[in-house]
Specification:
The protein is of the alpha/beta class. The protein has seven helices and five strands, in the order βααβααβααβαβ.
């Protein structure tokens, strides 16, 4: 099984004060136990490192980045120009849903990879018809 990991999950895992921290910690334990492959994107990582840097600390962001970039269970994928343009169309189409552009790139990547479940606490994924882990 493959699971897409969104910014909200990375933030919850790293911020002990996040309202979803305990839930995220339990979920990541299940991921490790079941050896689920984690997929994320360069956009999500950029957003996550930046949020961790400003909400927690620079050192927390560095620790997160080091562990992520040396992980054997997380694949960080790049967004192609074609996918960026598709994401832009999604962003324009769903103006009523307050989606971030990063969310839209995630939706396109998930569709391309046939991943239907996301490790996220962002309800926008449900609004687009995806499952939340």
């Amino acid at each position: 099984m493959r699971l897409f990991v969104d910014t909200s999950a990375w933030l919850a895992l790293n911020d002990k004060n996040d309202q979803y921290h305990n839930s995220a910690t339990a979920k990541i334990a299940a991921v490790k136990k079941d050896r689920i492959e984690l997929i994320t994107s360069e956009y999500v990582i950029d957003e996550s490192i930046t949020l961790i840097r400003y909400r927690i600390s620079h050192q927390a962001a560095v620790t997160f980045g080091d562990s992520l970039f040396n992980s054997s269970i997380v694949n960080v994928l790049d967004i192609t120009q074609e996918d960026r343009l598709k994401a832009w169309e999604v962003f324009k189409r769903y103006g009523d849903k307050e989606l971030s552009f990063t969310d839209c790139t995630s939706f396109i990547l998930m569709r391309n990879l046939k991943i239907h479940k996301a490790f996220t606490f962002d309800e926008h994924f449900k609004q687009i018809g995806l499952e939340i882990f």
